[in-house]
Amino acid sequence: WNENRNDFHDNSDWHDAVRGGGSAQLSWLPTGSAHAMTTGVDGSWTTVRSNFIGEPDITDFAGFVQDEIRLTERLKGTVGLRADFHSATVAVSETTLNPKVSLGYALGATTNLRASIARGYRAPSAIEQFVSTRQYGFQVIPNPDLEGEHAWSGEIGITAYPLPAIPLSYLDQRVAAAVAKLGYTIEPTPQARNSRRYQDRPA
Q: What pLDDT was estimated at residue 61?
């Protein structure tokens, strides 16, 4: 919930907004397979009541799927696709597809090469689409036909972990023992405890 009220010399704008949402994700890691699948959805719903924005109801929804593929012992690739949907009352709805492709190559136990390219999307906000007010002598007019922003990004880099692995703490050892009963193992990671090598990170 968000509320704002102005007391300027040229306006007395106010607005109330309520936003709710959620997300869900499912991962599939078949034993013995070179694929690791991840899929999910997320969405949010916003209701605005304002004297300078109007009373738009806004829906943002997205679904995504990703396949992480171990191509060789050292080479791992990831392909993914995200579909975004943005809708608001008295405005144009928009659907966009945003792909991602990445590669990670392990030069050694502590050095990795990585490269990726992806397309991103940002939906317009209620302020950007619907505001109609006057501030500091300027008249601001709404643009309900405003579309979202799209951008391509790419990355090429190398990651190295020159420091030795940090030993597991007592709690980590207890967790590792419990996980081992399920047939999995936990090992200390190089460098910082909260870092993960590129080929082990989700996209």
A: 95
